[in-house]
């Protein structure tokens, strides 16, 4: 028997749309101001991680990390967000990543509940820009949880709201922190990216264009003891 998941919880940045690239650009610019290079390798460690924690990781990566006060850290994080906000102001529904709109529609038609589980305080705004707000039953953003990814709270919060058990949920993520959060929540983790970063995922596809509802459901079903 094929088991259908009751809910699918999507990460936002890098899964529904390519705002992960805008986070990268904004951090890269801020890093340059501090004399710290933010390259793509370091950026993989920032994906899924909160704004302040990302800044702390960037600073810690410096050969000689500057000592900054809490107020200075907050000001730098705010500056990064101002730049990020400029970058996302021009997001439109055309920026929904390939395959996502179709997948959401197919899951919805099959009666699967849909949620967003994002670490971003800008999640609501980005969803509005994408005109996707109404596509989801529930949105978890950084304001709704105490513990960020890789803590499982983001995904558990969504499952609780949707009244489904964790093992009936699928999470979709492009970050190592996110895949860990999904699995620690006891859910089936779909990774979007490379095996180097997301090798732990239960199923891995290189990009959203390769996401396919039938394959996703089959893999979830086998994981959960079905056929
Ligand atoms: C996550 C991104 O979705 O949100 C991270 O993957 C980002 O890169 C985090 O740092 C927090 O986002 P924001 O918009 O609140 O700074
Ligand atoms: Mg992401």
Q: Strand tally, please?
A: 6
Helix content: 40-55%
List SSEs in N-to-C order: EHHHHHEHEHEHEHEH
How much is the radius of gyration in Å?
Answer: 17 Å
Molecules bound to protein: 6-O-phosphono-beta-D-glucopyranose, magnesium ion
Averaging pLDDT over every residue, what do you get?
Answer: 97
Assign an overall shape.
Answer: globular
What characterizes the major β-sheet?
6 strands, parallel
Give me the secondary-structure category.
alpha/beta
Distance between the termini: 5 Å
Q: How would you write the strand order of the largest sheet?
A: 3-2-1-4-5-6
Q: Which percent range describes the beta-strand content? A: 5-15%
Number of helices: 10
Low-confidence spans:
none
Spell out the blueprint of helices and strands.
Blueprint lengths: L6 E4 L8 H16 L5 H7 L4 H10 L9 H19 L11 H10 L3 E5 L5 H8 L7 E3 L12 H10 L6 E5 L2 H9 L3 E5 L2 H4 L4 E3 L7 H11 L4
Bound molecules: 6-O-phosphono-beta-D-glucopyranose and magnesium ion.
């Amino acid at each position: 028997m094929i088991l259908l998941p009751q809910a699918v919880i999507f990460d936002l940045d890098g899964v529904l749309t390519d705002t992960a690239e805008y986070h990268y650009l904004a951090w890269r610019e801020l890093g340059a101001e501090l004399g710290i290079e933010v390259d793509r390798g370091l950026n993989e460690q920032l994906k899924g991680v909160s704004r302040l924690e990302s800044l702390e990781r960037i600073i810690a990566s410096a050969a000689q990390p500057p000592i900054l006060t809490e107020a200075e850290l907050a000001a730098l994080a705010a500056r990064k967000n101002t730049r990020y906000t400029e970058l996302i102001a021009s997001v439109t529904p055309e920026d929904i990543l390939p395959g996502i709109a179709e997948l959401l529609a197919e899951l919805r038609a099959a009666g699967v509940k849909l949620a967003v589980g994002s670490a971003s305080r800008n999640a609501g705004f980005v969803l509005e820009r994408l005109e996707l707000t109404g596509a989801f039953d529930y949105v978890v953003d950084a304001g709704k949880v105490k513990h960020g990814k890789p803590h499982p709270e983001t995904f558990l919060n969504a499952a609780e709201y949707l009244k489904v058990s964790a093992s009936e949920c699928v999470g979709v993520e492009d970050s190592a922190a996110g895949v860990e959060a999904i699995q620690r929540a006891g859910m089936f983790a779909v990774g979007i990216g490379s095996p180097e970063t997301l090798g732990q995922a239960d199923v891995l596809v290189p990009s959203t264009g390769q996401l396919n509802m039938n394959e996703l459901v089959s893999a979830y079903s086998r994981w959960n003891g079905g056929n």
